[in-house]
Structures are given as structure tokens and as C-alpha cells.
Amino acid sequence: MAQFTYSRLSHLLRASGNKLSVSRTGTEVKPGPACHVQFTRCQRSVDSKALQERQKQQMAKGLPKQKPVAGVKQIIVVASGKGGVGKSTTAVNLALGLLANDPLKTVGLLDADVYGPSIPKLMNLKGNPELSDNNLMIPLVNYGVPCMSMGFLVDESAPIVWRGLMVMSAIERLLRQVDWGSLDYLVVDMPPGTGDVQLSISQNVPVAGAVIVSTPQDIALLDARRGAEMFKKVHVPVLGLVQNMSVFQCPNCQHQTHIFGSDGARQLADTLGVKLLGDVPLHLNIRETSDRGTPVVVSSPDSPEAEAYRKVASAVVQRLHEVNT
Predict the structure, then answer these.
(1) What is the pTM of this model?
(2) Nearest CA-CA partner of 173 in 209, 135, 211
(3) 108 φ, ψ to 5°?
(4) Are 275 and 239 in contact (CB under 8 A)?
(5) What HEC string does 273-297 produce?
(6) Residue 91, Cβ neighbours under 10 Å: how many?
(7) Pairing of strands 145-149, 140-142
(8) C-alpha to C-alpha distance for 312 and 322, rounded to whole angstroms
(9) Which tens digit of pLDDT belongs to each residue from 28-44?
(10) Torsion of CA 200, 203, 204, 208, to 10 degrees
């Protein structure tokens, strides 16, 4: 069975980029003096309200039509405005928590962070995906969760040096040219920020809801708010916020310290009018199990840390039900 590699993906993306450039050049129209005069007359004859309405219609025509991913019932994106708040760890344990809460459900995991893929390390997966008879990439599987990541196509230390168009094309292929099978949930680990990838996914596929991850720290909450507002603008339901690293409990004396502040995400959720999905503590067990590629939900299922993630997963399912009804 053939394997899908980074070099093959790069070749396909460059080829599609060249075709796009040719098609744009072929349809370019050079404005002339007559066009300018006609446009000026039309602009003066139309009042401002009618012009704004026409602009909205033109913008709507230019937006891509959302197409579902074959075999996937609901897509959940896990996002953060800032890196380093534990978004990828939360995405992995959310996917495993959904599966732990209801083993009859099928859950997949997509790593949409092209520049800094973390899923291979967190899920303890290596190797190139093989190709099916239909020329689709077959996800790598661990802990019962099929996974796809740019990290499967490149060496662990190799940088991805791509412009935005190639990144968006890669995301499209990682979404649609993968044999996901039949999934109840596809959890997408988004890159930090509010850039091309977030817009591309939000506009091209029907996203059931977004989960925003933040620490209680003020500087992280500023960016978390931007992330939530972005999803609202592109009409993606914000399922709620996860307050990560909410409290540190000393393993010796059990004293609790709010290193990054207390209840910042809870207050932000109230301000935005969304739900706080849960609190996840700052705990050594989460860090150690993540580094080993044995996420805490599967390696320490009876621990309070695993319980916190399962509660978040339950809250996400409840919010999805509320949104869909």
C-alpha cells in the first residue's frame, strides 16, 4: 500500500497554486476611462443604503459554500487566542473524554496546526499515513481515536515554511482527502490566533461548535475573547470556555495556589454570555502523561485530572444538544 509523504503533498499544493494563478490571470479585466465614468455615474445615482445592501450580496456570493466532511457528523474546533495555554492537551483529552463517556461513539482527531503539530507527540504516533484504494489517506490510530496531522508527513524537527495559500490547501486535504470512516465527532486542534486556518475551516466546513481554551491570566483572556468574537462573526456557535491551569495544589501539603489568577475565564464567559465548560488544574500528572504520549484520560482514568476532562466532554455534548435544538 502506498504512503502519503510531505514531498508528495508539497508537489500537489504547488501544482494547484500554479493552476490558480493561471486562472486568475486569464480572467483579469483592465479598467478603462469609460468604465470609470460609468461607475462614477452609477455610484452617484444609488443611495448609501442600497449600495451597502448590494455590497453585502456581492460578499455573500464570494464566500465559499460549506460542504460536510464525508462520514463526519459533527465537527468541534478547539481554539485559543494565544499559544501556550494547553489547547492541544485539552483537545486530545477532550476527544478521549468523549470516547470514555460513551464508548459507542466514534471520535476522530485532526491536528490543524500546520506549523507546530502536537498530536503525534501527545498521541504517541509516528509514521506516514498509507493510501487507500480510493487514494485517500488512512489516519493513524491510537487509544481508539483515528488521527491526522501534518506531523505525520514531516520529520519531527523539520520546519514548515509555507505561505497562507499552501497552508489552507493543506488543511483542505487533511480534512477531505482522509478516510475518516464514520465519526460522531471530529475534534480539530486549531492553531493559536485568528488567521487563515480559522477562517478557512469556519467557512468551508459546517462546524458544530467552538471550544475556547484559556488560562485565568488577564493577558491570555484578552486573546481568548478575540477568538470567541471571531467565531461569532463567522457564525460558529461558541460552546463555551475551558479554564485551564486554574489552580495548583501542592502534592506535599495540599495547599492550593492560583498561579495564573482565579476565575478569570469564568468572568469572561459571563461577559460573553457563554458557558464555562469546566476547570482543569495545573498538575504534574497532566504534563508527564502528555510528554509520554499517554494522555491522562487513558493513563490515569480515576484521577481528579481525568475526571475534569470528562466533565468538560460532558458539558460539550450538552451544549451541542442545546445548539442543535
Answers:
(1) 0.80
(2) 135
(3) -115, 165
(4) yes
(5) CCCEEEEEEECHHHHHHHHHCCCHH
(6) 29
(7) antiparallel
(8) 15
(9) 445 555 555 455 555 55
(10) 110
